Amino acid sequence: MPRLILYTTAWCGFCVRAKQLLEARGYAYREVSLDDDASFRETVARIGDGRTSVPLITLDDETIGGYEELAALDRSGELALRLAG
After folding, report:
1. d(CA 1, CA 4)
2. What is the mean pLDDT of residues 28-53?
């Protein structure tokens, strides 16, 4: 089971960018589409410690945040280190 989980919606540009980044690096992830969840903001807030926007990205049940946080982890090399361990 992938350690990275992306909670997304189809209309979210940052969701697309997060998936592109992970795919470009060859990282496995599981996508959970919230398109059919009328109260997706509440769902995301529950999972993401109060965060209400998508994408919501978790790694090993820890909330990473959104695209910007994911990209920062990637740029610093920390994402690769965390996924290698």
Report:
1. 9
2. 92
